[in-house]
Amino acid sequence: MDEIKRRDPRKERILRDRLHPKHEELTTFDGRSDGGGESGTANMMVNGVRRKNPHGVGFTSADGIKRIDRSGGMSSSFSGVAKKSQSQSLPRRQITEPTRYIVVVSDADSKKLTTLDKDMLGLAHQLATTLDDKTVAPNTAIVFLTLFNRDDDMAAFGADRVISLGDNTTYSPDHWLAVLHALHTQLAPQHWIFADETLIGGDLARKLSASLGERPATRVKAASHGSIECGSGDEKHYVTRVLSRFLLVEEQVSDPISGFVSEASACACPDVENGQAKIVDLGRVAVDPKDIPLPETRFILSGGNGVRNWALFHQCADALGATEGASRVAVDNGHMPRPTQVGASGTYVNAKVYIAVGISGAIQHLQGMTHCDSVIAINTDASCDMVKRADLSIIADSAAVMQALIDATQGELGEIEDAS
C-alpha cells in the first residue's frame, strides 16, 4: 500500500516563523551544519527543499553584537573566543606516511586564503574520504600548492602539505608548468584541483592535462560518490559525468572543513631546469577600476538610497581607486547601471574591502556581499542592518565623509597622524 503523506499545519507555521521558539529546533538538518560551522543554518523548508538560513549565520561577540564568520571554521559554540584558541581546541589531523595525494593549486596573489581556496580544500577532503571507488582513504594527504607566498594559516582549512613557488611579483607560467609536471611524476596525485574562474589556474590546468593526455572537467560545481556535475559545451547547462583526475572548479563547489585542523608541514619545491622562457614578465600594468568586473575586484565603493550627491560618489571612487557598486534601489532609481547591482538579484562579490555608502542592508544585498573580508558602512542610521554587519561603521552624512576621503587621498589634509 502506498504511503500517504500527511501535512502538519502546525509544523509548517513554525517553519515560516523564524521568531518562533521551536523554529531552530525544526529547521536543524539532521543536527549538522551547512559547512559554515553554525548549527541550525541548514534548513529544511516546507516544500522539502534544503535552504541556507542567512539569519543563522554568525556568532555573538563579547559586546553582544552579532558578527558573521567568514573563516569557514567558527562555530556558534565558540562565541567570543579568538579564532586561534578555537583552532587549538579542535582535533588535529596528521598524515605522517601518506599513500595517496590530492593537490590543490591556488593562483591567488593575496596574503590570505580566498573563499575559493577554502572551498577547494574542502572538496579535497571530501574526495579523500569518498574516492571514486567509494573506499575510505585515511592516508590521503592534501597538498596545497600556491604560486605566490601566503601568510594565512593554511592548516586551519585542511592543508597537510604546503608548497610555495615564489614571490608576489613574478609571472612565470613556464616555470610553474614545469614544477607541476615534476610534482605529477613525484606524487602521482589522485586528483588535481584548480580554480576555473581565474586566468592563471585555468590555463595551467588545461596545459597540464593536455600534455598528460587526460580530459579535464571544467566548471565543476559539485562532486560526490564518483560523479561530478560540471560544464558542458553549452555555457548555460551542466552535465553529470564520471569523476576526473583534473577538476577545474567554481566557487561553492564544497563547504570548507570544520571540526578539525590539519598539521601542515612545508614541502620543498621540486627542482626543475630553468630553460628559455617563452613568456617574459614585463611588470604590472595599471588598470582602470571601472573596467574590473565586480566579481573579480578587490575594492568596492557601493552606493545606495542614502547617497544624494552621485557626482561626489563617482569622484570619491576615482580618488580611492575603487570599483563602483550599487544597491537595487539605486539601480532602480536610475542612478547606477544594472551591471553594478550587488546582491542576490544582482552580482555576488568577493572583495577584500567593501564600503557601503547609504545602504541600509536589505537581506538580498547582504547575501551578495557575504564573502567580503572587511566591510565599512557609512550611514546616518546607527541601527540599520548594514551597520550591524559592518566591521567598521561611520555614523555621519555620506557627503561629508566622501569629501573627507577625497581630501585625504589628494593630500589636502596633510599627513594623517598616527592615532597611537
Structure overview:
It is a single chain. It is built from eleven helices and 21 strands. 24% of the residues lie in helices and 20% in strands. It has three domains: 72 residues, no CATH class; 175 residues, 3-Layer(aba) Sandwich (Rossmann fold), CATH 3.40.50; 121 residues, Rossmann fold, CATH 3.40.50. A hairpin with a 5-residue loop joins strand 3 and strand 4. The protein is α/β, with parallel strands linked by helices and 420 residues long. The chain has a seven-stranded parallel sheet with strand order 10-14-9-6-7-8-16. A five-stranded parallel sheet has the order 18-17-19-20-21. Helix 5 crosses helix 6 and helix 7 runs parallel beside helix 11.
Distance between the termini: 76 Å
Poorly predicted runs are: 29-42, 71-87, 412-420
> How many helices?
11
Give the CA-based shape: globular
For the secondary structure, the number of strands is 21
Q: What is the subunit organization of this protein?
A: single chain
Query: What's the name of the CATH homologous superfamily of the largest domain?
Result: HUPs
* Helical content (DSSP H or I, runs of 4+): 10-25%
CATH architecture of the largest domain: 3-Layer(aba) Sandwich
Biggest sheet character: 7 strands, parallel
Write down the overall mean pLDDT: 78
Radius of gyration: 23 Å
At CATH level 3, the topology of the largest domain is: Rossmann fold
What is the count of distinct domains? 3
Percent range for β-strand residues? 15-25%
